[in-house]
Write a structure and sequence with these properties.
By secondary structure, the chain is α+β, with helices and mostly antiparallel strands. The chain contains 4 helices and 7 strands, in the order ααββαββαβββ. Strands 3, 4, 5, 6 and 7 form a 5-stranded antiparallel sheet that branches. The chain has a two-stranded antiparallel ribbon with strand order 1-2. β3 (62-65) and β4 form a beta hairpin. α3 runs parallel beside α4 (80-100).
């Protein structure tokens, strides 16, 4: 259904751009765990629930590219510590998205309940 809508109203290339940019954004947002080594030289990974919560929210992010607009959706994590990570990354996220789309202006992130929206409009 999405492919047919894109063919009729937009461009099929923008659909594939949306998929690629969504995957890039999710990879950019992903926070990694630190690996600690024990005295015997074995790996010991400690699971950080804050980073897990942030990564779970980051996997819900979506980029929608169309001819006139780009809409970026980010899910805000539940915990305050994970939200702090997202707040610290906001300017970097806008910079990252604008580097993929040089012919768009991007707004500041707009929070609505537990969602963060970034809208880009095409330069004329």
């Amino acid at each position: 259904i999405e492919v047919v809508k894109r063919i009729i109203h937009d461009s099929l290339i923008n659909y594939f751009k949306s998929i690629i940019q969504t995957l890039r954004l999710r990879r950019f947002l992903r926070q990694s765990e630190s690996i600690k080594y024990t005295d015997e030289g074995k790996k010991s990974v400690s699971l950080n629930p804050v980073i897990e919560n942030f990564n779970r929210s980051a996997q819900k992010s979506i980029v929608n590219v169309s001819n006139k607009k780009i809409i970026v959706f980010l899910h805000i994590p539940n915990t305050g510590q994970a939200q702090k990570i997202l707040i610290d990354l906001e300017s970097q996220i806008v910079r990252e998205i604008s580097s993929y789309n040089l012919d768009y202006y991007f707004s500041q992130p707009n929070r609505i309940k537990n969602q963060l929206w970034i809208v880009g409009t095409k330069r004329r």
